[in-house]
Amino acid sequence: MAEFKLHCFGESGNSYKVALMLELSGCDWEPAFVGFLKGETRTPEYRANLNEMGEAPVLEHNGLILTQSGVILDYLADVIGKFGPKDAHERREILRWMFYDNHKFTSYFATLRFLVGIAKTGDPGAIEFLKNRTIAAYKIVETHLGKEDWLVGGRPTIADFSLAGYVYYKEETGLDVPAMFPNITAWAKRIYDLPGWKGPYDLMPTAPKG
Ligand SMILES: N[C@@H](CCC(=O)N[C@@H](CS)C(=O)NCC(=O)O)C(=O)O
User: Fold this and answer.
1) N or C: which end of the chain has fewer CB within 10 A?
2) What percent of the chain lies above the pLDDT cut of 90?
3) Which structural domain, as residue segments, surrounds residue 43?
4) Best substitution site from 14, 95, 118 to test ligand 1's pocket, by max atoms within 8 Å of Cβ?
5) Model-level pTM?
6) What CATH number is given to the structural domain containing 129?
7) 94 and 60 in one domain?
8) CA 112 to ligand 1 centroid distance, Å
9) Which ligand 1 atom is the nearest neighbour of the CA of 110?
10) Domain count of the chain?
């Protein structure tokens, strides 16, 4: 059995944030497939045994069960000793971006992508709302990345892996991110160029076909 077990699924960018950290850090880890699209995260067993919040990712390590990608990334930076803050100020800066990510940058985009690119359904008004909220959140990050190569501290950190959760997926969203956000696109390429980078569907399993 691997040292770290990540409950995840290929379509989950929130899980990818953690998978990317584990992979880039050279950890001994294994994925455990979560059947989200078939409702596994909504079952009483999942909520009782893995995550009362009914979400992926979940990380198992040394008898601990951790949830919320930001908390897991913070934990991993600590135990692995890579991609974390150098001091208390940097830790707060990293948390600041990860909270922003969870509230806005990932949240609106992931919901938009789910409705448009995966479920292929959704009220047109809701989709328009999500598009506009995504664009507003992306503009903030685009501006920051026009001044800095990395989100915090001039080097790749868990803040970058958090915001990068959804930037490599190709499903339709109705937004042309490379054309609209060149700084975000250049930053995603910098992460892509880190030694050991792999994409979400190369790191995490999807449901068996049929
Ligand atoms: N803030 C959470 C978000 C996790 C999340 O929304 N995960 C999705 C999959 S990408 C999920 O499991 N959703 C289940 C549901 O909403 O029922 C994190 O970063 O871990």
Assistant:
1) C
2) 98
3) 4-83+198-203
4) 14
5) 0.98
6) 1.20.1050.10
7) no
8) 14
9) 10
10) 2
pLDDT by residue (tens digit) across 95-104?
999 999 999 9
Distance from residue 55's CA to the centre of ligand 1 (Å): 4
**What mean pLDDT value characterizes the chain?**
97
Q: Check whether 210 has a pLDDT greater than 70.
A: no
| CB neighbour list of residue 207: distance below 8 Å, 6 or more residues apart | 9, 33, 35, 37, 38
At a CB cut-off of 8 Å and minimum separation 6, what does 187 contact? 145, 149, 150, 160
Give residue 155's region: left, alpha or beta (phi > 0; psi -120 to 50).
Answer: beta
- Helix (H), strand (E) at residue 64: strand 64-67
**52 and 94 inside one domain:** no
Ligand 1 pocket, CB under 6 A? 12, 14, 36, 41-42, 54-57, 68-70, 102
Residue 122: pLDDT band by 50, 70, 90 thresholds? confident
Rounded distance, CA 199 to CA 139, Å? Answer: 24
pLDDT digits (tens, 9 = 90+) for 20-72: 999 999 999 999 999 999 999 999 999 999 999 999 999 999 999 999 999 99
Question: Residue whose CA is closest, atom 16 of ligand 1?
Answer: 55
pLDDT (0 to 100) of residue 208: 85
Nearest CA to ligand 1 atom 11: 55
187 domain residue, yes or no: yes
95 and 186 co-located in one domain: yes
Angle (CA) 63-67-69 rounded to 5° is 125
